[in-house]
Specification:
Blueprint (H helix, E strand, L loop, with lengths): L10 E8 L3 E2 L9 H14 L10 E5 L10 H8 L8 E4 L5 H14 L5 E9 L5 E2 L2 H12 L2 H10 L9 E2 H5 L1 E2 L4 E2 H11 L4 H20 L9 E2 L5 E2 L11 H5 L21 E10 L1 H7 L5 E10 L8 H13 L8 E4 L4 H11 L2 H7 L20 H4 L6 H15 L4 E8 L3 E8 L5
Parallel strand pairs: 3-4, 3-5, 14-15
Antiparallel strand pairs: 1-12, 1-13, 2-12, 5-12, 6-7, 8-9, 10-11, 13-16, 15-16
Helix pairs in contact: 1-2, 3-15, 4-5, 7-12
Length: about 425
């Protein structure tokens, strides 16, 4: 099936790199978000035939950069040696920030504005800060504005120890303010809607680890670069992959988000992680100018909105709209990467696509879209095993999908991701060998 071009100029993925994904361990990690992006970006740019200053733009997705990394895209660009004259900026579309960075960069290339762009995402979730309560902030403001010792003493007497109870910003950020549900609770909703059992979730999670282990042993993660810190610490592979995972161990974990009736556990959810993934995108002119190899072509991108209470179903709508525009069927797609926010969420998407009732009621179709062959989905594991640094995952799944297509001499692939707040993103890429 021929792909209908949606860009006025072709946009190519030339190359890409990512750091190992580091499992959050209850304390701030050794690397900041910009450290991670710079590590991956330096490795990627070092193997190119042009200097970093030849880039036209740098676009980085990040959900929670630290206070000293405002416009982290610019920080990363300057640290990579791109130079002061190269513009750089930051995008945020929650879990799909890395994919949004690729989309934004691709549109700039397609429009003719740029020819060579570094784009991707980064996140240091372990460094999410603890926050003071509103009561403490108001008390502190009153203390600072009090005039004279008597007023200050009076304000001191109004202090309450409960004001110092910290707010965990990561938990607050992973809770939707519109429906007041955590992301895990939305996964419980999806599981309930499609009658997905705890055993099914745990089985999918076990397979994620098993596929990731096999991928590591077969060197299927060539895009992962070694990560070295200034204090001597280093990491060479994803830390969350568990070689000792079993159904019995997964079954022993208690539900985390709905402790009484739920089925979503830490074991069948994605891991809180630190990591970065960056890709080099180029126009045909840049590929020819610098004699660059081509990994894949970005063909189409689609964004969709869904009920925030079922945010995990975002890929159902985004991928469907993309395939409808391209007149593609499930069998036309050789490989899929669906970000594994939760096992229930991925399984829910698969159930929705193969349900006549759901597709008729929600997608306006006459019948089900179809089923995905499990051997074509997340063939080297996903975020349950590898981790989900929210700003980076959208870029990671696109980069790895391109590697999977090339490795298997396959043609078309879709990377799709659910997005906190009730959205979905999908990107269609094509394996191309010549430009």
């Amino acid at each position: 099936m021929q792909i209908n071009p949606t860009f006025t100029r072709d946009v190519y993925i030339v190359d890409g790199a990512r750091t190992p994904f580091l499992k959050a361990k209850g304390k701030p990690g050794s690397f900041s978000a910009s450290d991670l992006a710079v590590s991956a970006g330096r490795e990627l740019l070092d193997r190119q035939p042009f200097p970093p200053s030849a880039l036209n733009e740098v676009v980085i997705g990040c959900v929670m950069p630290s206070v000293d990394e405002a416009n982290i895209g610019r920080v990363v660009s300057l640290r990579l040696g791109c130079g002061k004259t190269i513009p750089a900026w930051t995008v945020q579309r929650n879990c799909a920030s890395g994919m949004q960075a690729l989309d934004s960069a691709a549109k700039d290339i397609a429009s003719g504005r740029h020819d060579l762009v570094l784009a991707g995402g980064t996140e240091a979730m372990s460094r999410a800060p603890l926050l003071f309560s509103d009561q403490y902030m108001k008390w502190a403001a009153s203390m600072m504005s009090a005039k004279g010792w008597q007023a200050k003493l009076k304000t001191w007497t109004q202090f309450r120890p409960t004001y110092l109870k910290p707010i965990i910003s990561l938990l607050r950020g992973l809770t939707d303010p519109i429906v007041n549900l955590s992301m895990g609770q939305t996964a419980e909703n999806v599981a309930y809607r499609f009658n997905i059992t705890r055993e099914q979730m745990d089985q999918f999670s076990l397979e994620s680890h098993q596929f990731a282990i096999a991928g590591q042993e077969e060197n299927h993660f060539a895009e992962v670069t070694d990560l070295f810190g200034t204090s001597g610490d280093f990491v060479i592979s994803d830390e969350g992959v568990r070689r000792d995972s079993t159904m019995e161990k997964l079954a022993s974990l208690k539900p985390f988000f709905d402790k009484k009736f739920g089925s979503v556990t830490a074991g069948n959810s994605s891991q809180v992680s630190d990591g970065a993934a960056v890709l080099l995108l180029a126009s045909k002119e840049a590929v020819q100018q610098y004699h660059l190899p081509v990994l894949a072509r970005i063909c189409d991108v689609q964004w969709a909105g869904v009920d925030p209470a079922e945010m995990g179903l975002g890929p159902v709508y985004a991928a469907h709209s993309l395939m409808q525009r391209q007149q593609l069927q499930m069998d036309d797609i050789d490989y899929w990467e669906i970000n594994e926010a939760f096992a229930a969420q991925v399984l829910g998407c698969l159930e929705a696509w193969k349900s006549d009732e759901y597709c008729k009621a929600n997608l306006g179709m006459d019948r089900a879209l179809g089923e995905i062959d499990r051997t074509k989905l997340n063939t080297d594991g996903g975020a349950i095993a590898l981790g989900h640094p929210v700003g980076a995952s959208g870029a990671r799944i696109v980069l790895h999908l391109a590697q999977v297509l090339r490795r298997n001499n396959a043609k078309k692939g879709i990377a799709t991701i659910c997005i906190g707040g009730g959205q979905g993103g999908a990107m269609l890429i094509e394996n191309v060998s010549e430009v």
